[in-house]
Amino acid sequence: MHFESPIKRRQSRQIMVGDVPVGGGAPISVQSMTNTETCDVDATVAQIRAIADAGADIVRVSVPSMDAAEAFKRIREEVSIPLVADIHFDYKIALKVAEYGVDCLRINPGNIGNKDRVRAVVDCARDKNIPIRIGVNAGSLEKDLQKKYGEPTPDALVESAFRQIQYFDELDFHEYKLSLKASDIFMTVEAYRKIASQIDNPLHLGITEAGGLRSGTVKSSIGLGLLLMDGIGDTLRVSLAADPVQEIKVGWDMLRSLKLRSRGINFIACPSCSRQNFDVIKTMNELEERLEDVTIPMDVAVIGCIVNGPGEAKEADIGLTGGTPNNLIYQDGKPDSKTKNVSLVDDLEKKIREKAVLKEQEMANIIVKN
User: Fold this and answer.
1) What is the pTM of this model?
2) What are phi and psi of 260, to 5 degrees?
3) Each residue's pLDDT tens digit, 210-228
4) Residue 312, annotated as binding a ligand
5) Could you give the domains of the chain?
6) Which residue range or ranges hold the IspG TIM-barrel domain (predicted)?
7) Residue-wise over 22-53: b if at least 16 C-beta within 10 A, else e?
């Protein structure tokens, strides 16, 4: 299918996180966060590289201590992807990592301290041209807001955010993005919708503490999907109690599904039934595992029988339709070759990789012409 996304994105101002533009119509960036011990430099660097290889644009690293700040310095020297330092409680840590080449500072208004401490961070960020992410979280609201509202609410999140926005405006500092996260989908969505209509700063999306791989993916897809459909969001992080690489994969799947960004293979696959002429589930598992390294955007249809197979295959770059005695491979909507079940995965992988090379050459030629 070649329909364009009908989503009209919210207009926001742009900031730069390293060399990645956030807001201002730039592609929605995908990010994750390391879960290694930051002071274990080798492990953290290895995880950052794995996250980057999965397609991350930005990686966040927790820096909970001065020892971690010193480790961050070494980490920064080892990787090239933009890094965000996650800072809580001690504003001096933010000042230290700013010296070490951090690309963005994430501070929490609920625990970073009084205005003088925030001002020190802002002044440092201004001097070094570092953007800030104001991260409001339902689990760490200011005590007076907890008392005022009785419990976290969308309005409480928005009020917390505006306290920092007002102070940043007083300091004439505008290079910031904002997040308002809760583990509750409805609270998060309403808070983002409220703030989106009142400011033009870029918004970082996320459902915090969403859960494990399966449940967290579902919750995040619903919550972030609602916001993305509204055109809200300039960068996102899918929060899962899982390997951070999985967060990147889910984030890309969201954007690909909404036709907001494309990377890698978009598989169209039937859920399988007794009509299937080959094992669809096994075939899909093998193809996804083998083809994770393919980053060129492609549509690949894998359909187990002739009911919907030919129709889906005609709309895909590469298509497979189950048949007897042989299955049929399509290329660019036209029948290309036949394959037996025993060699099906190998044959299809070969066709997909050949097509990826051709598409990459076509894209390179377009860039040269322009």
Assistant:
1) 0.93
2) -95, -30
3) 999 999 999 999 999 999 9
4) yes
5) 15-258 (3.20.20.20), 265-369 (3.30.413.10)
6) 12-252
7) bbeebebbbbbbbebebbebeebbebbebbbe
